Amino acid sequence: MRPPSSSPAANSSSSTTRRRSSRTRRASASRTTSPASSGDGTALDAFVEGDAERADRVVKSRDLDARCAEVERACVRTIALQNPVAGDLRFLLSSFAVAAECRGLSALADRFGQYALATDGGRFGPVDVRALSELAVGTLGTAVDAYRRLAAADGRDSALADDDGPCYGTVRRGERLDRFCANATEALARSGASGESGDAPGGRDAGGRLVATALAVGDLRRVGIHAVTIAGRVLYAATSDDGLTDRYDTRRASART
Predict the structure, then answer these.
(1) What is the mean pLDDT of the chain?
(2) Domain ranges of the chain
(3) Other C-beta atoms lying within 10 Å of the C-beta of residue 193
(4) Cross-strand bridge partners of residue 41
(5) What global pTM score does this model have?
(6) What architecture is the 4-255 domain classified under in CATH?
C-alpha cells in the first residue's frame, strides 16, 4: 500500500493548498503600500512640503489600516483552513508580520500629518528634513519591493538573500538613514542650546518648529526600522533565515515610544 502522502487525493489536496496560498500571496502583495498612501500621495510627501491640509486628507483616509486588516484576515483564514507547511507557512506568517509593521507605519503617518504645519517642510536650521524624508521613503520602498517580488515568485526566491538584493539593500539604506537621523538630532540639540533656531516663516514659533523637527527626525528613523524589519520578514520567508530580524530587535526597542 502506498503511503497516504502519495495518494491522488493527498496530491490533489496539496496542489489545492499551494494554489490558494499563491492567491493569498498575490492578494497580499497587491495590498501592501507605503505609509498612509492615497490619491493625494503619502503623509511623508505632505510633511516635507509643509502641506497640512493634504496630510490631514491622507491620514483620515485610513486606507492602509483597512488593507492591513484584510491581509491579516486572509493569512489567518488560510492558515486555519488549509494547514500550510514549510515555505507556505513561512510566507503567511511573514505576511501577517509585514501587515503589523504597516500598521505601525500608519500610526507614524498620523504624527507626520501633525508635523506638517509645525515644520513647513524643507530645511530647519542645520537639518534638511526633505532629504531625510526622501531617504526614508526610498528605504521603505526597497523593502516593499522585496515583499512584492517574493509574492510574485510564489514565496520562493532565494536571490532575495543576495548581498546586492533588495533585503540587504534595505539594510544598507536603513543604516544610512539611522546615521543621518542621529547626526540631525545632535545638530538640532546644538542649535537649540545655542539659541540658533533659525527664522520661523510666517511668524511661527521657532522653538516649536525645532521641537517638531526633532520629533519628526525620530519618527523618520522609526520608518527605517520598520522597513528593515519588513526586509527581515521577507528574508525569513524566502530562506528561513531570521538573523536579519534578530539584529534589529534591540534597535527597535530603543526607538519605541
Answers:
(1) 74
(2) 4-255
(3) 8
(4) 38
(5) 0.76
(6) Up-down Bundle (1.20)
